[in-house]
TrEMBL record:
InterPro entries: AB_hydrolase_fold, CocE/Ser_esterase, Galactose-bd-like_sf, Xaa-Pro-like_dom, Xaa-Pro_dipept_C, Xaa-Pro_dipeptidyl-ppase/CocE. Residues 290-540 form the Xaa-Pro dipeptidyl-peptidase C-terminal domain. One of its GO terms (molecular function) is hydrolase activity. This is CocE/NonD family hydrolase. The keyword Transport does not apply. It holds the Pfam family PepX_C. PANTHER family: COCE_NOND FAMILY, PUTATIVE (AFU_ORTHOLOGUE AFUA_7G00600)-RELATED, PEPTIDASE S9 PROLYL OLIGOPEPTIDASE. Keywords: Hydrolase. It comes from Streptacidiphilus jeojiensis. It comes from the Bacteria.
């Protein structure tokens, strides 16, 4: 990593509050170049507290943009950090309206040229797309990283119509802890306590709302820009990573957007591509986005001729085959380009399950998996930690029904979404199908390539629940998550089918599995012809570059256990998965803030009992400023269980000041299992 200190412009930084339509003021930090000329503004708009949680990351990029001639602005969403107002649901109408107001406010400042861009990763990538769909006139371009166009089927809540136990709960629990943190008296003064207690009184765990909407209804359509791609007028640079669950969005945007668009998918996890976190290689992402901003926000300036729109519509990293591992410092591969999507270079090639892929038995194949199938799935949101990625899949394959190709005679590359067509007979009204695509080496090791899920209640569309007539046979189809992967000669392509995938997928109350007719079923692989790549100009990026680090000091962890551990009680056949998400840990900031963070997620299930599934998340966050005598702690506990008819949620928040409890609340809910 190159830390740059010499920029074309000197930089000034100031904290301000930005008024929105109802008099609420949002807390913002603005880095600006020292110049008499108005400059474009770039906005990153998040709930994650610019004063502490994202401050190290903000320091990497906002000053860098300012030094290159942009006013770079980081704003906390209302009810979060030091912003006024009450917190709301993610991407609610108030959040988006406030975002539009901030865009207009920035455009009206005397130091701004009137042109605004938005960027962000995850939440900030989501609301960049959503605010672009509201089309405020000053917003000319966005960079959206690891984001989604479909809040129901490509977010942390549902997958293939199935409840995402692993991250619907984990993220709801995380946000309960996050939203319960107080404002900082260093910035808001003595108001902090009143603001904090008022917020705590308004808190309602997100999990209640998310489980209240188990099919794709109007709640999920709100903010899903796939409902109307034509609403987006701003130019869109969409970025994803092969280790990130949102990568399908880049391909859908490349296919459907009418606004100017370029897509970029690398080997990365759920991180900005310049941060150098596994899997790499990292790229000079800030320089690449500067090309984007210069083209769209400075189109009358000589630097606007950046050549960025001469790039292929879709640039992707073609992963080479690797032995299974939970961490790769770098994935071997190469950059490839496609001028359109769908690409003329990609052909959907069918592999029939009784021909191109074969099982170890002939005739109909019954799939009834143990409930702990999925314990080797890896993290839903890889963050670059040591245990994020799926380990060797041989144990998972043993809990599934597998269809293998013969050893490949030639190098075979795929790019895009594989599609599975199955003729299924189901003995019960509800079931789920999980498909994994694996790369099996000659030594038998099995590397996960991609996967997909279908809740059979959603087989006729995510908007409605249609129970299966027990004993009936139907044809169903669904896509696996997009991937780029090169299978070497001598390796086998494996399709593994299971009826369970814990803790990613919450099991139905009764899991009797399903039966597949291989002769009427097929896997369609998006095989890419790479013969034309040699004639294309090489795709390359500069080396990663950032502004100097903030100077945060990270505390040495005490008694730190494993990131991810699986335990089995042999007598009861209970499987317990414990996960330390390791978002950042304890740290000290240059301005005197002391921050501590501990979390543990637990997922438990018994191998033959889907009703034994339970999830637990415990968080403890501490904030202190010794020079002010300020010391607060937030502790949360979130649990989900289920019986045959309901999800049972139990959430608790305890807030302390100087060791004294100032707020305590518990929510217990029974939510009908209408779809999940």
């Amino acid at each position: 990593m190159h830390y740059r200190e010499d920029f074309p412009y000197p930089i000034v930084c100031e904290d301000v509050t930005i008024p929105v339509r109802d008099g609420i003021r949002l807390y913002a930090r603005i880095w600006r170049p020292v110049t008499d000329e108005p400059v474009p503004a770039l906005l990153e708009y998040l709930p994650y507290r610019l004063g502490d949680w994202t401050a190290p990351r903000d320091a990497q990029r906002h000053p860098w943009y300012a030094g290159n001639g942009y006013a770079s602005v980081r704003v906390d969403i209302r009810g979060h950090g030091n912003s006024e107002g009450m917190p709301g649901d993610e991407y609610d109408a108030t959040e988006l309206a406030d975002g539009v107001a901030v865009v207009h406010w920035l455009a009206e400042q005397p130091w701004c040229s009137g042109r605004v861009g938005m960027f962000g990763i995850s939440w900030g990538g989501f609301n960049s797309l959503q605010i672009a769909a509201l089309a405020p006139e000053p917003l000319k371009a966005i960079v959206t990283v690891c984001s989604t166009d479909d809040r129901y089927d490509n977010d942390v809540h549902y997958m293939g119509g199935s409840v995402l136990a692993v991250d619907m709960h984990a993220w709801a629990a995380t946000m309960l802890a996050f939203v319960s943190r107080p404002p900082d008296p260093e910035f808001v003064g003595d108001r902090w306590r009143g603001m904090w207690l008022e917020r705590l009184e308004q808190v309602d765990p997100f999990i209640h709302t998310w489980l209240d909407h188990q099919a794709r209804d109007g709640y999920w359509r709100h903010g899903s820009v796939c409902e109307d791609y034509t609403a987006i007028k701003a130019a869109v640079l969409a970025v994803g990573g092969w280790a990130d669950p949102y990568r399908d969005t880049v391909f859908r945007l490349a296919e459907h957007l009418e606004a100017p668009m370029r897509g970029l998918v690398g080997p990365w996890s759920h991180q900005y591509p310049d941060r150098g976190l596994p899997p790499g290689p990292a790229i000079g992402f800030l320089q690449e986005t500067l090309r984007w901003w210069d083209h769209w926000l400075k189109d009358e300036h000589p630097s606007s001729d950046t050549g960025v729109m001469a790039e292929p519509r879709l640039r992707t990293w073609m992963n080479e085959s690797v032995p299974p591992a939970t961490r790769y410092a770098e994935r071997p591969g190469r950059w490839i380009g496609d001028d359109s999507w769908p690409s003329v270079n990609v052909d959907m090639t069918p592999y029939r399950l009784n021909d191109g892929l074969t099982a170890t038995t002939e005739g109909p194949v019954q799939v009834v998996s143990p409930q702990h199938t999925g314990v080797d799935a890896g993290r839903f949101f890889p963050f670059g930690n040591d245990s994020d990625l799926p380990p060797d899949q041989r144990e998972e394959d043993g809990r599934s029904v597998c269809f293998d190709s013969a050893p490949l005679g030639e190098h075979t590359e795929i790019l895009g979404n594989a599609r599975l067509r199955l003729r299924v007979t189901c003995p019960s009204a509800r079931a789920q199908i999980v498909a994994r695509l694996c790369d099996v080496a000659p030594d038998g090791s099995s590397t996960l390539v991609t996967r997909g899920v279908l809740n059979l209640l959603s087989r006729h569309g995510r908007e409605r629940s249609v129970e299966w007539v027990p004993g009936e046979t139907e044809d169903v189809s669904f896509d696996l998550v997009a991937i780029a992967h090169a299978f070497p000669p001598g390796h086998r392509i494996r399709l593994a089918l299971s009826s369970a995938y814990w803790p990613w997928i919450w099991p139905h109350p009764s899991d009797q599995g399903f039966t597949v007719d291989p002769g009427a079923s097929a896997l369609l692989l998006p095989v890419r012809d790479s013969s034309g790549d040699a004639a294309r100009a090489p795709i390359a990026f500069e080396e990663p570059e950032q502004a100097p680090p903030l100077g945060v000091v990270y505390a040495a962890p005490e008694g730190l256990g494993p990131e991810r551990i699986v335990r089995r009680d042999v007598a009861t056949d209970e499987w317990l998965l414990e996960v330390d998400p390791r978002y950042g840990g304890s740290r000290s900031y240059p301005d005197g803030l002391e921050f501590s963070e501990d979390a543990l997620e637990t997922y438990a299930i018994r191998g033959a009992d889907p009703l034994s599934a339970r999830t637990l998340s415990v968080w403890r966050v501490g904030l202190s400023r010794p020079e002010l005598g300020w010391n607060v702690t937030v502790t949360t506990r979130s649990e989900i269980r289920a019986d045959a008819g309901h999800f049972l949620t139990d959430n608790q928040v305890t807030a302390e000041e100087d060791g004294r409890t100032v707020f305590e609340r518990r929510w217990e809910r029974r939510i009908p299992r209408t779809h999940g």
